[in-house]
Amino acid sequence: MKLCFATNNPNKIKEVSQLLGEKFELLGLKDIGCHEELREDQSTLEGNAQQKAEYIFDNYNINCFADDTGLEVEALNSEPGVFSARYAGPQRSDQDNMSLLLSRLEGSPNRRARFRTVICAFINNQKHFFEGIAEGEIARRHNGDKGFGYDPIFIPKGYSQTFAQMSLEEKNNISHRSIAVKKLVEFLKTNS
């Protein structure tokens, strides 16, 4: 089954390809000839995921899914949330975003946070949502050079390493995105 993941992020495509297995041919936006930047201007993760998936389904007529992920930090009233990618500004710099987050948490004893991923899939003309959550805490400084986004400062619950210190396989066993994708895969296997 061909399935388009509505993203240009090669890191996300690599993560998800590993989870989907060989039964599905995962295509990125470039693979279907989509070269425009997909809009993400909704106020929720669900809204952004649906906006992107709906656009691809309506314009390219292919089974597809899109995700949106937010880092929700308890001491910051769940910031950055839906604005995680552009927390420090429109340049979407991972380094700037992490630096701003760490500076805003400076002196706070509460480091609790969670990553939340929402996937919206359009499969055979029907819309479906899947959610994955990874609980954890924010480290006091960057650790690790793997992964992307906030991975160098997020320590998942029950672990002493950040996502950026883990192998892709380790991260894929517990990450928010993998939890949501596994729900999508289960759905696809039972409904295709």
Task: Give a written overview of the molecule.
By secondary structure, this protein is an alpha/beta fold. 32% of the residues lie in helices and 25% in strands. It has five helices and seven strands. Strands 1, 2, 3, 4, 5, 6 and 7 form a seven-stranded mixed sheet that branches. The longest helix is centred in the N-terminal third of the chain and has 16 residues.
SSE run: EHEHEEHEEEHH
Provide a count of the helices. 5
The pLDDT mean sits at 93
Unreliable spans? none
The residue fraction in helices comes out at: 25-40%
> How large is the radius of gyration?
16 Å
Distance between the termini: 8 Å
- The CATH architecture designation is Alpha-Beta Complex
Give me the CATH fold name: Maf protein
How many distinct folded domains?
A: 1
Structural class: alpha/beta
Task: Output the CATH class name.
Answer: Alpha Beta
Give the strand tally: 7
User: What does the largest sheet look like?
Assistant: 7 strands, mixed
